[in-house]
What does this fold into?
Amino acid sequence: MTEAKICGLSTPQTVDAAVEAGADYVGFVAYPPSPRHIPTETLRALGKRVPGLVVRVGLFVDPDDALLDERVGTGALDMLQLHGSETPQRVADIKKRTGKLVMKAIKVGKASDVDQGIKLYGRLVDLLMFDTEGGELPGGNAKPFDWTVLSGRAVPVPWMLAGGLTPDNVAQAVRLTDAPIVDVSSGVEATRGVKSVDKIRAFLKRVHEID
It folds into this structure.
């Protein structure tokens, strides 16, 4: 069964909607330039609303140790999503320092980006994410990449497909890629950075209908 992550949540209402509609992962952004960034105390409060079977993911972009310690110290994160230009050594150091599950986002513009990402990070992390290269922000830019570059790929760890997914195209994306997990942020927003409860429910409904 295809799993789903709703990223960039910032309010109790949208967290509850994601959980109630069957999200497997919920994401919280710790990157001030993003309109989805939330303060540490908001993360602490929202994390408490999430039941144990749902994985709470913190999105970071080239974080320093102080930010990691602050966010992990809330007890509100189960997994760290590294969405910047973190080197393999930095990824390994973060995993060791925090003791948390770690996901690395791979920016995809061409097929070789997938190969390179798997080569560099596939044996280091608990999960890989394939997202669209470029855009104003490291993620959440509402732009898909050529999904066919993932068709038939052997990936050594669980992985997520991200980038431009919506309730209308997620089924097609999974059919083309066989993605075991899909990630959405801008595709379930009413306005930039503001999630829509109805769109969250619609996206998760479509995902659950795929299988």
